[in-house]
Amino acid sequence: MNPKRYLPILQWLPGYGREPLTRDLLAAVIVTIMLIPQSLAYAMLAGLPPETGLYASIVPLVVYALFGTSRTLAVGPVAVVSLMTAAAVGQIAPQGSPEYLGAALVLALMSGLMLTVMGVARLGFLANFLSHPVISGFITASGLIIAASQLKHVLGVEASGHHLVALLASLAGSLAEVNAPTLAIGLGVLAFLLIARRWLTPTLRRLGVPARPAEMLTKAAPILAVAVTTLATWGMGLDANGVAVVGSVPAGLPPLTLPGFDSGLWRQLFVAALLISIVGFVESVSVGQTLAAKRRQRIDPNQELIGLGTSNIAASFTGGMPVTGGFARSVVNFDAGAETPAAGAFTALGIGLAALLLTPLIAYLPIATLAATIIVAVLSLVDLPAIKRTWDYSRSDAAAMLATILVTMGHGVESGITVGVGLSLALHLYRTSRPHSAVVGRVPGTEHFRNVQRHEVETDEHLSILRVDEGLYFANARYLEDTVMELAARQPGLAHIVLACQAVNVIDASALESLEAINARLKDADVTLHLAEVKGPVMDRLHNTALCRELTGQVFLSTFDAWRALHDERDATQLPSASTSRSTARQAAP
Amino acid sequence: MNPKRYLPILQWLPGYGREPLTRDLLAAVIVTIMLIPQSLAYAMLAGLPPETGLYASIVPLVVYALFGTSRTLAVGPVAVVSLMTAAAVGQIAPQGSPEYLGAALVLALMSGLMLTVMGVARLGFLANFLSHPVISGFITASGLIIAASQLKHVLGVEASGHHLVALLASLAGSLAEVNAPTLAIGLGVLAFLLIARRWLTPTLRRLGVPARPAEMLTKAAPILAVAVTTLATWGMGLDANGVAVVGSVPAGLPPLTLPGFDSGLWRQLFVAALLISIVGFVESVSVGQTLAAKRRQRIDPNQELIGLGTSNIAASFTGGMPVTGGFARSVVNFDAGAETPAAGAFTALGIGLAALLLTPLIAYLPIATLAATIIVAVLSLVDLPAIKRTWDYSRSDAAAMLATILVTMGHGVESGITVGVGLSLALHLYRTSRPHSAVVGRVPGTEHFRNVQRHEVETDEHLSILRVDEGLYFANARYLEDTVMELAARQPGLAHIVLACQAVNVIDASALESLEAINARLKDADVTLHLAEVKGPVMDRLHNTALCRELTGQVFLSTFDAWRALHDERDATQLPSASTSRSTARQAAP
Question: How far apart are the first and last CA of chain B?
Answer without folding.
Answer: 69
